[in-house]
Design brief:
heterodimer, A: 251 residues, D-Maltodextrin-Binding Protein, domain 2, 2 domains, five-stranded mixed sheet, 10 helices, 12 strands, 20% strand, B: 240 residues, mainly alpha, MetI-like fold
Chain lengths: 251, 240
């Protein structure tokens, strides 16, 4: 009887062992849509965009079976830690605060933050005296939020929004003087409308965007880094980038 | 905040002095918003409830329609319509109304007030309708006119019946006010969301704010129990 128990527990331990040593043939990757042109649904409802195509190329290279998960931005890191998915490829900029919770790959792109305002706005955004009392819109929890909070905290009034759509609506409604958003987003949502312009210079923020994974999944990070490097060198990355951007975001 | 408390707090990772100030400011806006909307809502609800009980359909139907609309749609939708809808009216930015509706506080206050006034109207109407007929007949026999009957008999008697249902409405309103954060108001929930997105610590940020809401609720429950004891003191046993 005792032998049987020992044998059973050995078998269990081995079974558990195989589960733990994942070979990453199945990877669940999370995106927050819409975030054009990085990830969005086309007119047929298919998930597409720069990061989606990059993820597809990466999975093909790794010979992994990937499942794409849609997750709202607020719940990204908690969802990753709760193992709802294994990796985030949703334009997550690498920051020290985030790096404490997740494991980042090498950066795979970087876009600056841009200032966008109505045509009538003619204040220098770097001039703190002139900016005093202005109302600035940012997306909550973004690197742009951190930048404005740290640099202009007591000077301007900061309004934080969950989605870019709500923020643009308030910019149109003149509740905001200027918004500070990820450059491609501002280009898509603000500049596409009449009567709006870009103000000042785009600001390079942070260390770029990386794939976020759980701290313990170092083996996955190793594979992802090797694959990304290969894609960047063999021209696959450039082909995808040129499809979506007319400027360089490669890192 | 005294320096030694700030220093002691700054040893924490998440609940630093800055975080605490943010929560405190959130508490202030929540209390302001809920208190003002409840007070204005109650003041509007009493006359509306009286109109709602009128036998003349020209008087009672508009009030019925109002309560029907505002009780039949979610508060979040009402807030969205008032906050984003008003900004879309062409030319509103040039009128003096914009001074009021530019800030998110007043659209939110308007939405909350209209919503709570609709519910409170129905609560008070129910209490008025269930006034024992004998009380009204007795008042008439004493020769009281309509106004005096209302003031001396019907409304005080209705208040005693309405207070329990109204205490629920007050607590619901406190909890509903959490949606103010979607229109950029930094109320308690807004503060919690900011802190959550800064430290990526959902449990810490939201459990802390849940405790604050609970304390506020307990204070309200306690206050309403005192009020009920006061209003319903004639129902207590005489012996002690």
């Amino acid at each position: 009887m005792k032998k049987l128990i020992v044998a059973a527990s050995c078998a269990l331990a081995m079974a558990a062992g195989t589960v733990q040593a994942k070979d990453w043939k199945e990877i669940r990757i999370a995106f927050d849509v819409p975030y054009e042109p990085f990830e969005y649904k086309d007119e047929n409802g298919e998930l597409t965009g720069f990061e989606v195509e990059l993820a597809e190329a990466m999975c093909a290279e790794m010979k992994a079976d990937c499942e794409f998960v849609i997750q709202a931005w607020d719940g990204m890191i908690p969802g990753l830690l709760a193992r709802k998915f294994d990796a985030i490829m949703s334009s997550m900029s690498i920051t020290p605060e985030r790096a404490e919770r997740v494991l980042f790959s090498e950066p795979y792109y970087n876009t600056p933050g841009g200032w966008f305002a109505p045509e009538s706005f003619n204040t220098d955004v770097t001039d703190m005296d002139a900016m005093k009392g202005k109302v600035v819109g940012v997306q909550r929890g973004t690197t742009m939020d951190t930048f404005v909070t740290d640099k202009m905290g007591g000077i301007v009034t900061i309004k934080r929004y969950t989605t870019a759509d709500d923020m643009v609506l308030d910019l149109e409604g003149q509740r905001l003087d200027v918004v500070f958003v990820d450059y491609p987003v501002g280009e898509q949502t603000v500049l596409s409308k009449d009567g709006f312009k870009e103000v000042g210079e785009p600001v390079k923020l942070g260390e770029g965007v990386g794939v976020a994974m759980r701290q313990r999944d170092k083996d996955l990070a190793g594979k992802v880094n090797a694959t990304l490097k290969k894609l960047k060198n063999d021209g696959t990355y450039d082909t995808i980038m040129k499809k979506y951007f007319n400027y360089d975001i490669k890192m | 905040m005294p320096d030694f408390i700030a220093q002691w707090l700054n040893q924490n990772e998440i609940f630093t002095a800055m975080t605490m100030v943010e929560y405190w400011n959130g508490l202030v806006s929540t209390v302001q918003l809920v208190f003002l909307s409840l007070v204005i809502g109650l003041v509007c609800a009493v006359p509306l409830a009286i109109l709602r009980t009128s036998r003349n359909p020209l008087v009672s139907t508009p009030v019925w329609l109002y309560t029907y609309l505002f009780r039949g749609t979610p508060l979040l939708i009402q807030l969205y319509i008032i906050y984003y809808g008003i900004a879309q009216i062409p030319g509103i930015q040039e009128t003096f109304w914009w001074e009021i509706f530019r800030e998110p506080f007043y659209p939110a206050l308007l939405a909350f007030t209209l919503n709570t006034a609709a519910y409170t109207t129905e609560i008070i109407r129910g209490a008025i309708m269930s006034t024992p007929h004998g009380e009204i007949e007795a008042a008439k026999a004493y020769g009281m006119n309509w106004f005096m009957r209302m003031r001396r008999i019907i409304l005080p008697s209705a208040a005693r019946r309405a207070v329990q249902a109204y205490s629920n409405e007050v607590i619901f309103m406190l909890h509903s006010s959490a949606i103010a954060s979607v229109v950029t108001i930094v109320d308690l929930t807004g503060a919690a969301r900011n802190i959550y997105s800064r430290f990526y610590a959902p449990f810490d940020a939201f459990i802390f704010v849940a405790l604050i809401y609970m304390v506020l609720t307990f204070i309200l429950v306690f206050a309403f129990r005192k009020l009920e004891n006061h209003l319903l003191r004639h129902q207590r046993p005489v012996s002690n």
